[in-house]
Design brief:
This protein is mostly beta strands. It has two helices and 16 strands. The strands form two sheets. Strands 2, 3, 4, 6, 8, 9, 12, 13 and 15 form a nine-stranded antiparallel sheet that branches. The chain has a seven-stranded mixed sheet with strand order 10-11-7-14-5-1-16, with no helix packed on it. It is globular, with a radius of gyration of 19 Å. About 8% of the residues have low confidence.
């Protein structure tokens, strides 16, 4: 039998490797057999994640934009879930090696209409973190259903915050607030090292999410944090 040339074999291996890496639209999967096994590793008090590095249920649609980083972003195109969090659920595993209080922000856009106060929010929850709260001028608020008070103005339920962005600059920007007409920044406390779950679910159709960031404000300004490299990924 005639042996194939080394060049042919190298090309064949490369093709097969590339084919096996493509796991879902908008993603390549260099680490795990599927995206549900991704673990995003905190380093030096910071985690920066491309939102598209995951598996998404029906209703989320992958899109590209010159304003988005990575391969693109995902936008909710299903029915609105204004009062019932948990629809279109996406989960991220975050490996925390430096416990503490992290501020959460994300890079999102309004992709439907021209009103910055509509189609501008999604639900967010940290179900196993030590604490999860909004803060403004030293005053804290907690999600409805968490057993803690006070609670935000407007929608919240079962430990979920509605996380919105404001202003009529509709393109992608870093912002994350909760409590209607009384914007509070978002914080989560991880008491011990370990792997924690972050949950995102659909609220407003047309809210496009490109990436998210958690960082300790004792270590970074916001401008320093958003300039960091994307966090390393390991396999669960």
């Amino acid at each position: 039998m005639k042996l194939q040339s080394p060049l042919f074999l190298s090309l064949l291996i490369l093709i097969l490797s590339c084919s096996s890496d493509n796991d879902s639209e908008g993603n390549s999967n260099p680490v795990c057999s599927n995206f549900s096994n991704y673990v995003f590793n905190e380093k030096d008090n910071l985690i920066l994640v491309e939102f598209e590095d995951n598996e998404f249920p029906a209703g989320w649609e992958f899109k590209t934009s010159s304003s988005a980083s990575g391969k693109g972003y995902y936008v909710w195109t299903g029915d609105q879930s204004l009062g019932n969090p948990g629809n279109g659920l996406v989960e991220y595993k975050l490996n925390i090696t430096n416990p503490g209080t992290y501020r959460f922000i994300w890079f999102t856009a309004v992709t439907t209409g021209n009103n910055g106060t509509e189609h501008n929010d999604s639900w967010l929850k940290f179900p196993d973190a030590e604490d999860y709260f909004g803060e403004k001028n030293g005053n804290k608020i907690y999600p409805k259903g968490s057993g803690q008070t006070p609670n935000p103005n407007g929608s919240s339920a079962d430990g979920w915050f509605k996380i919105y962005r404001g202003g009529n600059d509709l393109d992608f920007k870093w912002q994350a607030s909760t409590s209607d007409n009384d914007a509070h920044n978002i914080y989560v406390e991880f008491k011990n090292p370990g792997v924690y779950t972050m949950q995102v679910s659909a609220r407003s159709s047309g809210h496009g999410i490109d990436k998210f960031l958690l960082y300790q404000e004792v270590s970074y300004s916001q401008n320093e944090a958003i300039s960091a490299s994307t966090s390393e990924i390991s396999c669960n």
